[in-house]
Design a protein that fits this description.
heterodimer, A: 367 residues, B: Rossmann fold, globular, transport (chain B)
Chain lengths: 367, 267
């Protein structure tokens, strides 16, 4: 007992900044949960879900170096699992009015948390079947297969009317409005990912990204390790999809076009392939950025009748901003670095040095 | 007792026979060398032994000693490289293959992955077992880095190291897999005479300290002749000579392969 107390004490001494940061963060979420309006609340919830899914994608794409484009599909599986199992039984007849729900599902209703985990596990099972053939190969096969899969799953969900209600989608899913669900899950997943990346498994993932032949020669089983990463990614994505369904209160196949995957691809490229903190920052930047630029979609006229501001301009400006970022930060905002205290201190020092360097040079010029 | 044997190994790529009828027999505790002109098939032989290639025909047999001291001969022909490494065969690469973006310490830690006895779930929860395993692995690796004189650079990126130290790091990484047989593919390539001398000493020391059997490809003849117990000479995939350094040095076939035939003699 005393030993554990000691070790906790030592841990706090070493990581007090992180501990303080976590407490501040939790208080921040708590305050936000009480005070923000419903628009901002939904936006912040969406940010957290994007953090979860992008992190899962970065685990496979950024850390393990396997190019997977199946996020939309895995999200759909998680979202539909939550939808099917949490819709209140009494409202099911009204939702499934074209074709009644399959009898073996019609009377099952699960608590949200159980359905959420079930959604993650369903993603894992599907991921296993996609991964088994594809992860044995080298090259871009995984990208092609997963991209195809996410389209297939969407079409399957459109056509299995008695389970998913087809193109009509499922409505009146009990919604979550508290920030704690999304941010709590996001926080847990971030911590689990950080610990995983800093363990022998994380190093094995990175070694595969760096050099497959050398990794294999050092005793890292390629298939097994890639599969581990792929399945963990699928689990987190399924969870993210489940939260997405519960946030919106409705799912339909059109939400899960493969363009959804590109949002996450954008986030991880922008944040840095192989950086957890970069992914988190980019998730907020992209999600909030797309909303903040919405004013560009509304018509505006400055005296003259210039019809520039019209729906779609937002995306033009957004893609321009992205190009600028990619031009100046080729490896994303964070590269493969993490936003640790050391990193911040180092950056702070280098900026300070630059500034003072400039000052002295201008003074020198004055003489 | 032989640690590694190959029986009539043939490796063909289409019409090219890269290794033809290779029979080697490396005894436990010895230092054997594989030499030959460029393109003789030396690295291909290594790739066959470590499982990168499956030979067209023939067998590779490895006899590891387990924890209880018992030995059994295992057929490792065509097994996956990571399985073969797990049995106790480690290697370095001719054209350095470090994990460039990882730090020096991380590079070595990757090689302890096969001995890690905790699951990814306990890693995600940082369970006591995972923490203990991690601590142990770090200690082992730091010891190895100390041995190879890289401990001060442990937090540097591997790609930022000078060439000679990258070679040392490759050896440290191979040792971290706890091998019984170490395959060194041109460890002294690109080194100056003084560095080569230091490397010779190092290899010799590591061999005794870690109870290793070493099989190496090398072009520096003085190094090879000085430290090897047995030498195999390859030319165009065929074994043209084998024996002790003295025997090989005076073998006319070897001289012919390296220096060519004197035109006057041939006539």
């Amino acid at each position: 007992m005393k030993e554990t107390q000691n070790s906790i004490g030592a841990y706090l001494k070493l990581h007090w900044k992180t501990a303080v940061f976590l407490v501040v963060l939790l208080i921040g979420i708590g305050l936000a949960d009480i005070f923000v309006d419903s628009y901002m609340r939904r936006l912040l919830n969406l940010c957290a879900i994007y953090v979860i899914v992008s992190l899962a994608m970065n685990l496979v794409n950024g850390f393990t170096g396997q190019f997977s484009l199946g996020q939309a599909g895995f999200m759909a599986i998680g979202a539909y699992t939550v939808a099917v199992f949490t819709v209140p039984i009494e409202s099911r007849a009204a939702i499934f009015y074209l074709e009644p729900m399959a009898p073996f599902l019609a009377n099952i209703q699960l608590p949200f948390i159980v359905a959420l985990i079930l959604g993650g596990l369903a993603s894992v099972v599907v991921a296993f079947f996609i991964g088994s053939p594809c992860l044995r190969l080298r090259g871009d096969y995984l990208a092609i297969a997963t991209l195809g899969f996410s389209e297939i799953i969407r079409i399957v969900f459109t056509n299995t009317q008695s389970i998913t209600n087809g193109a009509l989608g499922i409505k009146s899913i009990p919604t979550i409005s508290s920030l704690w669900w999304t941010y709590g899950t996001a926080l847990l997943i971030i911590i689990a990912t950080v610990l995983l990346i800093n363990s022998t498994y994380g190093r094995a993932f990175k070694s595969i990204r760096e050099d497959e032949i050398a990794a294999e020669a050092m005793g890292v089983g390629l298939f097994k390790t890639k599969m581990t990463s792929f399945l963990i990614g699928a689990f987190f994505t399924g969870i993210g999809g489940g939260l997405f369904a519960a946030l919106l209160g409705t799912v339909d196949p059109k939400q899960f076009y493969f363009t959804l995957t590109y949002n996450f691809l954008l986030i991880i490229v922008l944040g840095g392939m192989g950086s957890i903190s970069g992914t988190i920052i980019a998730s907020f930047v992209v999600t909030l950025g797309q909303e903040a630029l919405r004013f560009l979609d509304e018509p505006m006229a400055f005296g003259l009748d210039l019809p520039i501001f019209r729906p779609g301009l937002r995306m033009v400006v957004f893609s321009f901003l992205l190009m600028v970022i990619v031009l100046f930060y080729r490896k994303g905002l964070m590269g493969t670095n993490e936003l640790t205290w050391d990193f911040i201190a180092q950056k702070y020092r280098s900026i300070k040095k630059k500034l003072s360097g400039k000052k002295t040079s201008t003074e020198g010029g004055g003489n | 007792m032989s640690l590694l044997r190959t029986e009539n190994v043939i490796m063909q790529f289409g019409g090219v026979v890269a290794v033809n009828d290779l029979n080697i027999d490396i005894k436990k505790g010895e230092l054997a060398a594989l030499i030959g002109p460029n393109g003789a098939g030396k690295t291909t032989a290594f790739n066959v032994i470590t499982g990168v290639y499956t030979p067209t025909s023939g067998k590779v047999l490895f006899t590891p000693t387990d924890k209880n001291g018992a030995t059994t001969e295992i057929d490792i022909t065509g097994k996956k490289p990571d399985k073969i490494t797990g049995m106790g065969v480690a290697r370095t690469f001719q054209n350095i293959r470090l994990f460039k973006e990882l730090t020096v310490l991380e590079n070595v830690l990757v090689a302890t992955h096969l001995n890690a006895d905790y699951s990814f779930l306990s890693a995600m929860l940082r369970a006591p077992k995972a923490r203990k395993g991690e601590r142990q692995a770090k200690m082992d690796c730091e010891f190895l880095l100390e041995r190879l004189g890289l401990i001060d650079l442990k937090n540097e990126k591997a790609s930022s190291l000078p060439y000679g130290q990258q070679r040392h790091l490759e050896i440290a990484r191979a040792l971290a897999t706890k091998p019984q047989l170490l395959l060194l593919d041109e460890p002294a390539a690109g080194m100056n005479p003084q560095e080569t001398d230091e490397l010779t000493d190092l290899i010799f020391k590591l061999k005794t300290d870690f109870d290793l059997t070493i099989f190496m490809i090398e072009h520096h003849m003085d190094l090879v002749m000085e430290i090897s117990d047995h030498i195999y000479v390859l030319d165009f995939g065929c074994t043209i000579a084998k024996g002790t350094p003295d025997e090989v040095q005076n073998n006319p076939k070897v001289i012919e392969a390296y220096l060519g035939v004197d035109a006057d003699v041939e006539d």
